[in-house]
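Reminder to self: tokens first, then the designed residues, so the page reads top to bottom the way the pipeline ran.
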């Protein structure tokens, strides 16, 4: 097999594109690698390869698919540190966090290696004595997986592994900012022994051109995408003409509610775990912190002091908690949100500024006295900034938390079991962290949102559903 450097993986071969594009380390601005720059024609070649490979792969036995997935899992774990280094260099998150993501990514492969053997149908009792009813689950077909830059490893495996387990073939298009991690994962998949055409990789600096091919070609029967709500809506419209299956994991605007009976120290650590992981660049990270007015001053002091200790820097340096934002545009948005909040009356408790002369760093920031008129109250910041709002009653804060077009994740801290029940049932969100700031850590749970935060679910046994068709057979005799 030839080297994957600056090449695409199509039909079991690493093939060159006419051009390449550079990958930038957001911590330094240095070029850390290059990737092949695919166009529409190369994307079509990937579709053709996946379509041609589907009949044989869909008929491959579940134990065989399981064995290949398990070997892929082993290879990822064997190369965990290497992949994590790539991830940190192209995306910026601290190396320990990157290692955690690679392990998380590998465990999706392991989970679906096991689930591949448990795709069951049903025999349903008939109301006719001379009929038998059977229900089969069969793979949907060719899958286009479009993944984001903020989790370059985990979002690949969370989509590709269940698709392969179900018997689908895949075209992977990673984000243009972070293709190196995906390239290495696909190289290891090839080493694991997946047949030609079963996994195809298309990197590009022109996501709209390649994405249009993947969403409009009738041979692609399923699109799975993680990214912004704006782009998700565009893909949804493009996929409609061929009535493709589509899974969308989109933006969020997560509330984090701290009730007066909460353990404040745990709640402070919960906000830090939810808000500042990956420099605030996660779709489920806290965007609005609502604190009961009776504890607001104490909580603000505790959070401000704890956040002031977080160290910002290059992800490969020891002791760093927060890496850079992905690019200048992301940095400018965070800066804009902070300045808007300060101009409208917020109080800066810590942070609030760019950090350093190189890279896209922003200090870990806490804003007190936030109000609904601020941009940060309605727009997803995607950066290390926690705005603190106050509330008086449970009904009030529930209404305010739900007053958004998004519905991905929500968090609350309380010791009242009755309130736990009311809040988890009342919050219009697909993922609830009840005294838990890290609910996404579970590979076995369904991940996805309500409203404009997306469609379908990823993870656990639920993650297979989007890649399977249900076929009903009525046999008369």
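Designed residues (477 positions):
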């Amino acid at each position: 097999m030839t080297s994957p450097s600056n090449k695409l993986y199509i039909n079991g071969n690493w093939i060159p594109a006419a051009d390449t594009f550079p990958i930038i380390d957001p911590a330094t601005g240095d070029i850390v690698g290059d990737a092949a720059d695919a166009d529409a024609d190369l994307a079509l070649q990937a579709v053709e390869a996946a379509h041609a490979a589907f009949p044989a792969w869909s008929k491959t036995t579940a134990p065989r698919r399981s064995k290949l997935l398990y070997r892929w899992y082993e290879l990822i774990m064997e190369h965990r540190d290497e992949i994590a280094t790539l991830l940190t260099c192209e995306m910026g998150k601290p190396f320990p966090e990157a290692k955690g993501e690679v392990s998380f990514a590998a465990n999706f492969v392991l989970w679906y290696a096991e689930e591949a053997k448990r795709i069951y149908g049903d025999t349903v009792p008939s109301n006719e004595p001379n009929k038998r009813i059977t229900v089969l689950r069969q793979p949907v077909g060719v899958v286009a997986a479009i993944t984001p830059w903020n989790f370059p490893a985990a979002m690949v495996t969370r989509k590709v592994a269940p698709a392969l387990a179900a018997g689908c073939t895949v075209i992977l298009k990673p984000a243009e900012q972070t293709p190196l991690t995906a390239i290495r994962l696909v190289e290891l998949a090839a080493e694991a022994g997946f047949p030609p055409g079963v996994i195809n990789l298309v990197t590009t600096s022109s996501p709209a051109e390649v994405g249009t091919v993947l969403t409009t070609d009738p041979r692609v029967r399923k699109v799975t995408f993680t990214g912004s709500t704006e782009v998700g809506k565009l893909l949804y419209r493009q996929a409609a003409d061929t009535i493709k299956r589509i899974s969308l994991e989109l933006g969020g605007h997560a509330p984090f509610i701290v009730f007066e009976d909460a353990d404040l120290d745990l709640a402070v650590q919960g906000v830090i775990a939810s808000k500042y992981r990956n420099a605030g660049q996660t779709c489920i990270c806290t965007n609005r912190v609502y604190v009961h007015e009776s504890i607001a001053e104490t909580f603000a002091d505790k959070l401000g002091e704890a956040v002031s200790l977080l160290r910002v820097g290059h992800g490969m340096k020891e002791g760093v908690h927060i890496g850079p934002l992905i690019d200048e545009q992301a940095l400018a948005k965070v800066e804009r949100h902070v300045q808007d909040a300060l101009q409208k009356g917020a109080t800066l408790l810590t942070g609030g500024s760019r950090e350093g002369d190189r890279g896209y760093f922003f200090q870990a920031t806490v804003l007190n006295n936030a109000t609904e008129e601020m941009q940060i109250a309605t727009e997803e910041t995607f950066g290390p900034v926690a705005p603190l709002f106050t509330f008086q009653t449970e009904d009030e804060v529930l209404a305010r938390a739900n007053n958004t077009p998004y519905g991905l994740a929500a968090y609350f801290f309380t010791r009242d079991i009755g309130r736990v029940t009311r809040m988890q049932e009342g919050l219009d969100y697909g993922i609830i962290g009840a005294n838990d700031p890290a609910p996404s850590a579970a590979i076995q749970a369904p991940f996805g949102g309500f409203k404009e935060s997306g469609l379908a679910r990823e993870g656990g046994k639920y993650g297979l559903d989007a890649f399977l068709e249900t076929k009903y057979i009525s046999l008369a005799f």
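The chain has two domains: 7-250+453-476, 254-442.
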